[in-house]
Amino acid sequence: TGILVPSPSSSTVPPVILTQDELKKIAAYKAVEYVESGMVLGLGTGSTAKHAVDRIGELLRQGKLENIIGIPTSKKTHEQAVSLGIPLSDLDSHPVIDLAIDGADEVDPHMNLVKGRGGSLLREKMVEGACKKFVVIVDETKLVKYVGGSGLAMPVEIIPFCWKFTATRLQNLFEYAGCTAKLRTFGENNEPFVTDNGNYIVDLYFKKDMGDLRAASDAILQLAGVVEHGMFLDMATTVIVAGELGVKVTNK
Ligand code: 5RP
């Protein structure tokens, strides 16, 4: 699927079709304009964040950025950053991060997010919670009226011990919203998907909205067995959306 970019009406140039991945790249490159030499950077995870990490690597190689320290949000991003020669550290050594750049699965008009369909929500929340600025990069397909209400997964990272018990408790918590809880699996044998932290992910699907998001967040986090959930409430400071009509930047 592509997105039609209209050319000026007087132009004879045919309209350009940008793919979703090209839009992700446009948003990512725009976000990297916020990066300055000497910064400690949170490096996000996913196909959009990958473009930002690539771009940071490129600018370092060209000598246009210097003295960057990256804090990766997943093993995959760690590997990518190493391959690009980006110097890395961690939250123990750098508990305050200047800027993080990451994608999202859903973004609502209040800049609340759903993240974690790529499975890295825990490290993302730890790193992005330690940032002075958190820039979210998305293509316009990620915009929703209400996070968790898109009918798509809202991920919750749980410990493997008695996962069915925890999944059932999560589902029961949101019975009023028609919630179904499904263990995330992969492959032909439906092996449980295991996070970088050795945990499982239960994806919650809602028929109706959850109501008060902060109350929903608190209720999930109170369940023993839950490690973290994918709602990122009031964390983003900038959202960059690339779409049909260009790039839109919204600051908190
Ligand atoms: C991974 C994430 C990703 O940021 C989110 O899934 C968006 O991914 P993509 O940029 O590939 O659409 O939260 O845990």
UniProtKB/TrEMBL annotation:
Classify the source by domain of life. Answer: Eukaryota
Tell me yes or no: is Transcription regulation among this UniProt entry's keywords.
no
Give the pathway listed in the UniProt entry for this protein.
Carbohydrate degradation; pentose phosphate pathway; D-ribose 5-phosphate from D-ribulose 5-phosphate (non-oxidative stage): step 1/1
- The protein in question is named ribose-5-phosphate isomerase
Family per similarity comment = Belongs to the ribose 5-phosphate isomerase family.
Q: Which UniProt keywords apply?
A: Isomerase
Which reactions are catalysed by this chain?
A: aldehydo-D-ribose 5-phosphate = D-ribulose 5-phosphate
Encoding gene per record: LOC107429360
What HAMAP family is this protein classified in?
Answer: Rib_5P_isom_A (MF_00170)
